[in-house]
Amino acid sequence: MRLLKGKNFCDLGPIPYAISEIKEKCIKKVRDLKSGVKFARERKNKKLPCLVAAHQNRIIKVGPGIDPVLQENKAVNIRLAGGRMNGLIIHPGETFSFWKTVGSISKKQGYKDGRIINQNKLVPGLGGGLCNLSNTIHLLVLDSPLEVTEFHTHSDALAPDGEKRVPMSAGTSVYYNYIDFRFRNNTDQDIQLCIWCKDGQLYGELRSEKPFPYKFSISEEGHHFQREGDKYYRVSKIYKNTFNKASGELIDKQLIWDNHSEVMFDYSLIPADQIK
Questions:
Q1: Which of 8, 68, 170, 171 is the most buried (most CB within 10 A)?
Q2: Are residues 44 and 157 in the same domain?
Q3: Where is 17: in which H helix or E strand?
Q4: Please, what is the angle between helix 68-85 and helix 130-142, to 10°?
């Protein structure tokens, strides 16, 4: 709901914000009921034989301004949510939904306060860090023939890059239940999602019954930082590339994100040679 002078109803205070959240959650549930989408539910302990894609990243981040307690809590949240989806089978025609799989979260279930983005600020919040998990799943899907059907972004500049810039290392947003990440199995065989944590690392795999004839990669063009007013933004275009596995020929290049992300870390840490 939008009011005069460009203000949203949810910006008027905690109560209007809570009302807006309830409205969005109800809308999402009604749309799902009407859509007829079949969501993936079955889980199997035994892994399917063929590895389609694999990805891993360190869960705990360290650096200036990063609260170590919230990072430890993030690790707890990821282990809990990841355990709900490990081994999930997505049959042909079925859709994976992050929130249909994980369900609502609460302190009673063991979830803790981690970092969340609220009104463009990094603040503590219950279940913080689950965007790290959704982003890992998104990376797996981008390395496969599966079709992303719902994707929301937040900042792709939450922390300084490491030694090497990794496109899509962040930026996939989830918030129960109306900001979801979903993908559809548009192939003719079962796909399995495997998620686990070990030694401070988050591991993810997509597996299938038989190999696919294509391979995939992500590329980034025009990456730089730019100042707009008193803020800085990361700007780039990110593509998904599809290759014929046998010949190596590029057969498709699809823009998946026209990236314009507000920098959420100390501006002094932005590499000077990357500012335009």
A1: 171
A2: yes
A3: helix 14-35
A4: 50
